[in-house]
What does this fold into?
Amino acid sequence: MRLINRKPSRITAFALGAAPFVAVIVAYAVASHYRRLDNPADKLLPSLPDMASAFGRMAFTPDRRSGDLLLWMDTLDSLERLAAGMGISILLALSLGILIGFIPHVRASMAPFVATFSLIPPITVLPILFIIFGLGELSKVMLIVVGTAPVMIRSVAQAVMELPRELIIKAETLGASVWQMMMRVVLPQILPKLITAIRLGLVPAWIFLISAEAIASTSGLGYRIFLVRRYLAMDVILPYVIWITLLAFILDRLLLLASRKAFPWHHMQGESL
Amino acid sequence: MSAQPKVSVQNVAKIYAGTVVLERLDLDIAAGSLCTIVGASGCGKSTFLRMLLSQETPSRGRILIDGEPLPTEPTPDRGIVFQRYSVFPHLTVEENLILSAEFDAAPFSGKLRGAARTKAREEIAETLDRIGLSPARDRYPAQLSGGMQQRLAIAQALLKKPKILLLDEPFGALDPGIRADMQELLLELWRELSMTIFMVTHDIHEAFKLGTRVLVFDKIRHDPDAPDRWGATITYDLPLGRPGAQTIPDAKALFALKNTTRGDAPNA
It folds into this structure.
């Protein structure tokens, strides 16, 4: 049988999926073991138990100076910024995206501008944001908006334009106004695509969140890992990176789950990822 | 004028970027006709239908309905059923059918709630029964067979009581058995509602079985050096009277006729 026709069983698929993770962990453990044979105080590759205890300390032992549980405080602060930034981006993507995709005059006026704007490397506007909005929360939120909104607007507009023209014409023959078509035909049909756009937008959103926190902040996951970098505290940095990855993964899965629950008609037409 | 034609097509041509698709279309269609349109692929039959729908405008000439120029955009007086994408995939069968009532009653939200919604659902219950979709009322189109989807599409188009119903190869993707059932349903509805129907089909048997009038679109003039120079036009306009009166041999005879007239055309 050709390779392309052989499908792994559930157990095989799980084992194959887990293998790269296990391989990385084992490779790390071995490397760490030999480094610490040379120098028991090695900071670059701390042992797995060391990392576990450092992570436990961040999560469950109140900070000596402030009395806060640092991991949870950082997580909450970062997620708040992420939610605020993505919330604004989502509103922009829905309103502008639908107008650009649906109304030719708006498209003619806004599409070139959004396309140009989306090419600005967002980090380059960070100094401008700091100058305009100060070093507080707003500039970090705005960086996420600048980094995610243009692409999300474009993908929503594209989704609107890809709706079969037949459906729009059918709605016209059923007597719908432009507003009614937007509310009943266009919006509900692009919501699943919006969720996809959010899932894709979250990738750059995390990058800009961590960057902004690293540069100017006094709390947050990005702030923490760049702070402890000064002490070469790999036992904190590595678990934090894994924690951030886990948060991103959970958010992504939740969005997919929400999409399947809310838009069953969309997922009936055979789709994956 | 004693009997004004329902639809009057006057010297219409359609040209896309130098390519003549249709030219010299001249015809009057009486009210209550079931006009079937056949022709080879790419001969402009769907373009003709799109012009009747105001989805496209004629490059030359004009189209009148009841003596009035066609509106410049699709309006509820002309219903449409496409081969695909005719029903809304995000709405259940029932929601698809109450949608036009919702557009009428709720200008802002386009959505009915509570008692008004219940009433709208009651109003379409009979339609649901009629098209045999009562048991499937809460299903999404993706869960329906092709025939069920097209029954839904036709019912949805008829709810606005259009004077003219346009059908663009509505049964083209269906199995032969289901296709025959759908043809019966269409004839029943046509007799009941006394609409004028235009139906594009690539199936000449279907055209003769259903039509009271069959229009055959074809290119009659060919220029081998400039294939875009001449467009298709109506080469046969056959009034048949009652649908079903014609039998298949006529269709065969027609094709034989076509082949002889086309014999001198290069690459025909």
Summary: The mean pLDDT of chain A is 92. Chain A touches chain B through 25 residues (CB under 8 Å). Chain A has eleven helices and no strands.
